Amino acid sequence: MERAREHEGERGDAGRGPAAVGTALELLVHGVGGTTPEEMLGDPRTVRVTGDETAAVYRRADDADAERRPDVDRDHRDERGRPVPEAYVWCNLTSGNAARALWLLLLPFMVANLAHWMRPTTIHRQRTVRLYGLIVRLVGLTLTVLLVAAACEVALDLAAWQCAGTRACAGRHSWLGFLSPVASDGGWWSRPGRRLALASLVPAALTGLLWYLSHRTWSAYESQQPISHRAEPDEESHRTALGRPGFWYGRRLVARLRAAHTAAGFLTVAAALGGSALRYDRRHDTLALVMASRLLEATILVGAVVVVAVVCRRGRTEDRLDQELDRTLVRWLPAGALALLVLTMVYACWSRPGWRSAGRLPGDAMFGALALAQGLLVIALGVVAHVLYRAHPDTRTAMRGLAGPAVAMLACALGGVMSGGVAQRVADWLDGPGHPMAGPPVLLTWQASVIPPLLLVLFVLVGRLARRTWLLRRAETPTVERDYPGEPKDTARTLRIARTRAMAALTDRAPLVVGITSAVTLLLGAAALVGAFTTDDTPARAARGTEPLLRGAADTAQALGSWLIGVGFLLFVTWGRRAYKDAAARRTIGILWDVGTFWPRAAHPFAPPCYAERAVPDLTWRMATWTRSTGGRLILSGHSQGSVLAAAAAWQLKPSVRRRVGLLTYGSPLERLYGRWFPAYFGPAALSSLHREVACWRNLYRLTDPIGGPIRLPGEYGPQVDRAPLKDPLAYGRTKEHPLPAPILGHGDYQADPAFAEERERLLVRLRPTLPGPRPGDGPSRSGDEAG
To answer: Considering the entire predicted model, what is its pTM?
Structure first.
């Protein structure tokens, strides 16, 4: 009865005239890197049908009013026999603006956010699932504290405490002259507490900037509401959360996490600023200041507990469209932390005539606590992930369910490289001959010293992969010759095709690389933490008095690691600066974000914005409104990352609409990347349900494609979706159809293959409605609009 009512409603929709019956539309969604509507539609004359400058749907100018033109046939096809093509262009969501190149500096936050979505598949154990999300959110919180702590180390310790407190260093940097007790002749700002209070404005401003960027990007990219529909039980519909009404609208969680992380940043600055003054006052037993210090310390501790409680409170609300906001929490938690920071600045500025800066501020305790907490959280996350995987094992899942903990470890390592790199480079810049500075905390030096052993392991791993690729190329050579029978033998051509196939297969070895890298990073990080706190000295000094070989290795590791960690940070800055000026480099960074920012911000609010929270509602609204107004056939055609957006949008449709949509994917990473790395959302059960719920689905792939691959549905579903691998190149040598050498296409230009048009035509045939003769008094019948 419900389906009959829907059909009756469709017959009464405005704009559904005789010319609209049987309308065929192909909605094209491009992949990584983006393109232009002119390239997608193959016509220099295009018009924007709906959307804005950020993301929009385009048509050829001749097809702008295709549904209303009476001079076209009932299928509304163009002169080449194709359905009316529409192009959804979303590349400006990730790479359209030069300022977005600065998002590269938020890479650790993005990687941590990815770990949230990599949990193994499970139907039950919901408490364990919530525990998994909680641990990842705590890892994200430690990354925010680490970033702000690194800014405090640079501004407070290296600049205001060590350099400004030394005659030689302050003399080399005139901009620090007014902070020096000697150069400024004991001016007001020359007191250590006041210097630190002034320098604390730098990390406080960084925290405010992160809050502003998170708030602004949410309003610009992620505030689009999905189409409204009722939630359906997983066992009766799709076995994935991607179809839930509130999945692509995480406003409440992002706002709450943004408030907590902002407050954590301000509290970190307050702790770094007040810590040195607290220790001085306790040593000199000034009663009033001691009481104030104890009260201030207790307040900071209470604030930290509140922040952790807010982060632990709850996760995402996906079963409904959550429009509410925790306004009191969102407004007053950051404001309270900022007020506490202002009070700490006033406390630090209090006159202490005997206070002098010497050595370094005790930052080892903060960095050591962060490193220990991150290591323990990653280990706990690994245990939880293993429990979830054992409940529903799948051999195709990357790293047997441990991909999330491994990626979380890499996020912590990236954060350590960036924080240690900026501290090391600033220390080298400020330091000079004469009276050398004490430098950054010992732990950061130990962490830098373990980079050379890590790179050595990676070099061995790369060598092993190179040898495997060479062997695979040899094995592919006879296969290539069999794929092109009767062709004159061309050794160079054969080897080039075989090498391309072997290189494309390296994608499937990514779990090995990530697993070994993260495991070695965890072990070396633990060794650095133990070495720093057992010796309380740098590796080179700790190795004095040992064997010459060990001493030389320690000296080399420390010097090379210090250089490498500094160069690593400079590469981040240089790449971001180049991308700001160079459109090609900006496009490359955009490709990274296309893959990394598909998922909503569920673990870290300062991660780059999720473009899918705009793109998926766009596609869903377009498909739902078009099919309702025309009742026509719709092919959703997605390439590469566009196929992932297409699948996510299809899951958001009502079942009655989803059964009228055909899905055509090509160069698709749906199973090869997303199904293996995000099994809870794109695993075999989810993809099988998508195949059952859409009208029809075909997938094209090549063996030379390093990104796309087969969908690999189990049982009889596999051949129904996957076509046999397409030939690449289309011709081995020169032929009548290809008089010039055919290129190896790899991941691109799938539409140039004749198989593309064949599969699209088959989908249209399967979607073709049956049109029985009208009954007296009735309009056109739609009883068969869901055939196929």
So the answer is: 0.88
